[in-house]
């Protein structure tokens, strides 16, 4: 199993704080030692960092923890390999351009018999995750030749895809193209939304107190999604199996709860 | 104008030395202050770093200069904006997946009236360079539905594309998909190939002596291509306008000289 981290915010916000907690899981407080990656959206483009070294020992992760990159959407992943060797090609998040936007995808779980269906987008590595990402993008592109007129037209299709994947194994997933953050919970995903400034937050994995005023600046809406709660003091909400949430600018713009 | 740097090597080799010289041009010894990027190929995957800050002031560039990432193919670019704002989306190198390989492209020059022709690959930013990259990949994909049986089938088509671009302006270009490094000289590109160990090399921009034994290890073939020679002591060869060279494992595997 791996660990996911996603953020959607109303103003460009840095994720150093949450990422620091996540990277501790990559070899210090957790067993996820098979690489990590993070993608930041900035003005429609992306900046990515990845390493096949454990995040707790990676010099690149050290930089990301200390360097405040301000972004409205971030997707990060630390890996414990099951399908696919430890290698850069198998390191999430995966990215592809579709309709002139950089799409980013990260997955937690395993689908043992998962099949890639040949199409325009092809996997570079050997994970079930990247195969699923390519299948999803090929399906989206085939359904909307010129792109949808509004992003919300995509949600039912992406949800249906996630449900299919869930029927083949475990499929906790984060997806973005720079405007929205789509999150699907198969069995293990927590979320919280912070609407106002808070004074202090205790980071669970490293017992570090951080003044959030200095991090997000003035009042903002910031939503964070993670495999496990990253802080003690915040009220993390466990998502239900089959639940899907779409965030835009930190707020929920679409929500599916299973029957 | 911008500055290009490319490397092809017979064994995974770090480029800290050449990159250090390049980044000095990004705001210290040169005027290229509008961002920079670098893509390293490792085991078929890529690792990229980019910033819209000048390379001479970028903390990310500082890490890349000090952190020896071993790669057989590297493409880097520092930018002086002409077409397209200073932004991450307009920062070279550009990357796209085609046939399950990560393709990387960087361009030096300007084509004022250049047109993007709608196709599957679409630009994310607003540069003439990314438009040309997308046009090139769309043409390649349309010509080889399943991919070519051998890479060399691609060279005449890529060369013809470069010649067309050259007729529209200045088009010095580096392209790779992890196996080969394709280099086209429109008006300004230097190359050298080093086949044996050398004792010392004087970096032109920072007056620093470096022991190359410690950098490339035992005997290797390393070819470097750059807009301007990066070292004093090496014998850099100025490429001719219209000249194209393809490197694989540091050696030239295809060479086109203009009539």
TrEMBL record, chains A, B:
Residue ranges annotated for the Glutamine amidotransferase type-2 domain, each copy included: 2-259
PROSITE patterns per UniProt: GATASE_TYPE_2
GO terms for MF: transferase activity
InterPro entries in UniProt: EgtC-like, GATase_2_dom, Ntn_hydrolases_N
Keywords: Glutamine amidotransferase, Transferase
Record Gene3D superfamilies: Glutamine Phosphoribosylpyrophosphate, subunit 1, domain 1
Pfam families: GATase_4 (PF13230)
Name of the protein in question: Putative glutamine amidotransferase
Organism, as annotated: Gynuella sunshinyii YC6258
């Amino acid at each position: 199993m791996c660990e996911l981290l996603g953020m959607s915010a109303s103003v460009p916000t840095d994720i150093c704080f949450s990422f620091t907690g996540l990277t501790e899981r990559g070899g210090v407080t957790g067993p996820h030692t098979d690489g990590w990656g993070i993608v930041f959206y900035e003005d429609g483009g992306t900046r990515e960092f990845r390493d096949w070294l454990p995040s707790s020992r990676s010099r690149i992760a050290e930089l990301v923890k200390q360097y405040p990159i301000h972004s409205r959407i971030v997707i990060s992943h630390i890996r414990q390999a099951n399908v696919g060797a430890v290698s850069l090609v198998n390191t999430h998040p995966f990215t592809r351009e579709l309709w002139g936007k950089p799409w980013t995808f990260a997955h937690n779980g395993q689908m043992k018999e998962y099949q890639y269906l040949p199409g325009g987008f092809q996997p570079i590595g050997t994970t079930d995750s990247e195969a699923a990402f390519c299948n999803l993008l090929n399906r989206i592109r085939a359904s909307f030749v010129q792109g949808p007129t509004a992003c919300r037209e995509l949600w039912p299709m992406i949800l249906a895809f996630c449900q299919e994947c869930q029927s083949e194994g475990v499929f906790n997933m984060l997806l973005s193209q720079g405007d929205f953050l789509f999150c699907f919970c198969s069995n293990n995903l927590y979320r919280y939304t912070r609407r106002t400034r808070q004074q202090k937050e205790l980071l669970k994995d490293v017992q570090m107190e951080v003044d959030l005023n200095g991090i997000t600046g003035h009042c903002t809406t910031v939503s964070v999604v993670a495999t496990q709660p990253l802080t003690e003091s915040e009220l993390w909400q466990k998502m239900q199996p089959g639940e899907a949430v779409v965030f835009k600018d930190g707020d929920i713009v679409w929500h599916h709860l299973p029957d």
